[in-house]
Design goal:
This protein is of the alpha/beta class. The protein has helices spanning about 15-25, 50-55, 60-65, 70-90, 100-115, 135, 155-175, 195-205, 220-230, 245-250, 265, 310-325, 355-370, 385-400, and strands spanning about 5-10, 30-35, 95-100, 120-125, 140-145, 185-190, 210-215, 235-240, 270-275, 280-285, 300, 305-310, 335-340, 375-380. It has two domains: about 5-175, Uncharacterised protein family UPF0261, NN domain (Rossmann fold), CATH 3.40.50; about 185-400, Rossmann fold. The protein is elongated, with a radius of gyration of 24 Å.
Amino acid sequence: MKTIALIGTFDTKGKEFLFVKELIESLGFNTYTIHTGVFKPTFTPDCSNCTVMEYAGEQLEKVQQKNDRAFATEVLANGMEKLLPQLFKEGKFDGVLSFGGSGGTSIATPGMRQLPIGVPKVMVSTVASGNTEPYVGTSDIMMLPSIVDVAGLNSISTKIFTNAVFAIAGMLQFENKVELEQKPLVATTMFGVTTPCVQFATSYLEERGYEVLIFHATGVGGRTMEQLIEDGYIEGVLDFTTTEWADELVGGVLNAGPNRLEAAGRKGIPQVVSLGALDMVNFGPVDQVPAKFEGRKFYRHNPTVTLMRTTIEENEQLGKIIAEKLNLATGPTTLMIPLQGVSALDAVGQDFHGPCEDRTLFEAVKQEINPQQVTIYEENLHINEQAFAEKAAEQLIQIMKK
């Protein structure tokens, strides 16, 4: 019989969580209840708030005496981040469910993020329709808007609670039993303007027995790939689209943080890297582009995405950054340079075609790269040409086999 971990503040929302607990058990599942409130719970949990706080190095009495909501939330969140994965390793539960406002969501999700991908994780939250990245991160947490506050049992809340229970029950009951053939996992990065390149490379790799995971280079996509590499899922990396570094440098909306391009190098994972879409920085609708960029070259990708061409100076900096990251590599690393353009917009006759900008990028990265650590191939091709994509894929296969 499967067990669902139920995380919540059983002191202030005991009635609501008791309703959910009883519903779960009526469906034939066990529950493992974890109290994340500060005070005495309405019902006896399987795991007390004392235990949660001890995992954060704090005592319940101290937290209660401090009478500081923000401090208590931080302690409980830190405790859950360490405790929940430990409970999962001990086989205490198979999936996890929680309900809460911004505080409850902040407490439950750090632990959920530490669970393996594929473990059912459902968070019913009052903040589910806003920016959920701080809660979801690079995990597969499913967030469901609570519609009304998680406070009281009424015709709306009970329906939402019931749907959430049925959702996680279905995930656990109808678990996929089909076992796919185990193949070496390759991660690659794609943007709309590098799609042909990635499609050609993916077909080439799949025909030769590799499974390809494609990550959309939208910030969270790059971070997710880096996390999966850290977690040991990935055996080879074909990082065509390093555009997130342009947003990180210039101030675009799709940056992946300062550690992008580091995970494979640290882990010694074979990697082939290119310079895809470094010709552009991403913003939202055109009226949301910061005023300081007035006068720059723009391209309206769609009503909600505005692209800005990177300058010669920015490309010089980007080349140095890419080289710096690749020089950290402890495993086989190759840089593939497409001399005829780095995106669909950076081609003859297209809006971002910039031979001077590209040349600056290429020369900067070559000048800073450590040739003892990184092999460089310059191809007189555009990044989206089939020949370029297949050469990069073949190079990755060769260094993976070594």
